Amino acid sequence: MAKFDNNFTDELRARLSIVDVVGRRVPLTKKGQNYWGCCPFHNEKTPSFSVNEEKGFYHCFGCSEHGDIISFTMKSNNMEFIPAITELANMAGIKMPDFKPKNPDIAKREESLFDICEKAAQTFSEKLFTPDGAHALEYVRKRGFSDDMIKKYRIGYAPKNNIIANKFANSKFLIDSGLCRRGDYGLYDFFRDKLMFPIFNANGKIVAFSGRSLDGSEPKYINTSDTDIFHKRKTVFGLNFARDAIHRSNRSIIVEGQIDAIKMQTGGFPETVAPLGTALTEDHIALLCKSNRNIIFCFDGDGAGLKAASRACSIVMPFLRDTSDVKFAFVSGGKDPDEILKNSGEDAMRKIINDAVPLVEFLWDITNKNFLTNTPGGRSQAEKFLKKEIEKITDTDLKLEYEKEYNNRKFNSWHRWKRSDSAVQIKLPDIDSITKNTLIYIVNTYPELAEQYIDFLTTLDIDFDGNAPELNLNKNSAEKYIVSLKLQRYLDKLNLTKKELLNKLLSGDESVRDEIPKIDSDIESAKEKLEKLISL
Questions:
Q1: 347: Cβ–Cβ under 8 A, 6 or more apart, which residues?
Q2: Topology adopted by domain 234-366
Q3: How sure is the predictor about 430, in pLDDT bands with cuts at 50, 70 and 90?
């Protein structure tokens, strides 16, 4: 069998969860750290087939079969290597490359890039503790970083001169590393006068850097451009440090930036990670789900944080399983996790994490906030939005449960007739007792009309649970009564508005003059409709 490009097979293993691949053929149950099922390769009644999500392999304690997603697909489907990885590529949604061995030149370039990044990190670390880096060291210590933290995360300082360009001038891969660029006068350092955070891959190798400005200039952070060994959309900051903690705590916490991630990891939440230099992506979630599908998104409570959380909710939907526990936590008051830990301590941050809202509640909440569910049009838009999000769930049984859950909520909160205490009240004359009793009778006798005209009826502040005398009204007459009352109330409102505008005009406010003809036109139109309705 010819050797396949390791980059592609590694990509398959990174994108696909072995639990998902095996679970398509073998019913699995989580027990402890692993998933268990009956082995598909020999007959057994007691499950001895173990699947390890984090390490990406399966092992049968009965027949000793062992392997990864590729060997499982080959053996379980009686496939050769290429058809197996073709099937897996289709599952992962990635294109099959040409079938060829890995280019030795590419391998050599990658090793050189790793070497440059490692030596650059050493240089930056040394510079932090020199006079040139004194202001950077002062800044990072004021942010609460101890020397042990600086050493662990290998934080450094990139000086104003071209230290990297001069040090690696003879390397033909220097520009490929993203650390230097070529200008009119030769090579120059990409990072200058920056606090430097090395970016590690999942295996702990430095692949890139993130530099923070120290003079207040924007953007605050700049990152290495994508290279042969670094892709922002596929790199989770801090995962190399958090991997074991994610396994132990049975969850991961996602925050918005690398400083927040570091402070969370060292402040009692070692399972914390962050996306890097870009918005959260499907690749980030896929990588985390290989370790654990329980995720808490922790964002700022401002508009930008809520927007990021909504996007994260949409992205994570295809990765949900019935064993998933996805939640959303928010840090309010213009603060971030770093500030909470610094000023209020670990207990305050833990309360924020423990109070996280489950995904099913968060999705329902943002639906109700983003659409006017007290109107038919708004409810229609909201239902389309929910349906679109639920359709992303690939677990059929779980998708069905979400549909049932939201159907119940929609019925109870949107469609079922009930008096709404939060309805907007129009300040018009009170309903007289005859009108009130008539409406109570109609609502109790024709609930379908109550549903149809719920938006109007909830503005009247009537207790429709009360009793009313029996009236001789058929359904058509009842609907005509509601519509005529609605038109009359609308006319009353228009007349009140016109009165207010006239008072403003008499007081010298000329800005309202153009509004009065429009109100007059609306009044005439409403009168015509009311007269036509009465004549029917």
A1: none
A2: Dna Topoisomerase Vi A Subunit; Chain: A, domain 2 (3.40.1360)
A3: low
